[in-house]
Design goal:
Blueprint lengths: L3 E2 L6 E2 L9 E2 L6 E3 L2 H21 L4 H26 L5 E2 L11
Antiparallel strand pairs: 1-2, 3-4, 4-5
Helix pairs in contact: 1-2
The structure holds zinc ion.
Length: 104
């Protein structure tokens, strides 16, 4: 199985090292992050599962929306963590907003 690796030094990154929105590589201290499109997919899937689950539990109207949103956060977080083990994302270098990536 593929593992998450630091884009700078190629050291393996364990799930326990991952922090959001970005974190330092345990080996070279580079600022790295999980791609936002990966998190977006996990949250989108989490929201779909959450709303479907609430709907199947018989919730409707405002209760369905409130519970759906709450469970979306929960399921999305679980999927993000589980996804990093099952289907590890490509870790990217983190650029501080506004730096335009000019800082190496
Ligand atoms: Zn590194």
């Amino acid at each position: 199985m593929e593992s998450m690796r630091c884009p700078a030094c190629s050291v393996m990154i364990g799930v326990t090292h991952v922090r959001f929105p970005h974190f330092a590589c345990p080996n070279c201290r580079s600022e790295i992050c999980i791609p936002s499109r990966y998190l977006f997919k996990a949250r989108l899937l989490g929201a779909a599962i959450a709303f479907l689950g609430c709907y199947l539990m018989g919730l409707s109207g405002a209760v369905l929306v409130v519970c759906g949103v709450l469970f979306s956060v929960l399921v999305g977080t679980m999927l993000t963590t589980a996804g990093m083990v099952v289907s590890p994302p490509v870790v990217e270098k983190y650029f501080h907003p506004g730096s335009l990536g000019l800082k190496s």
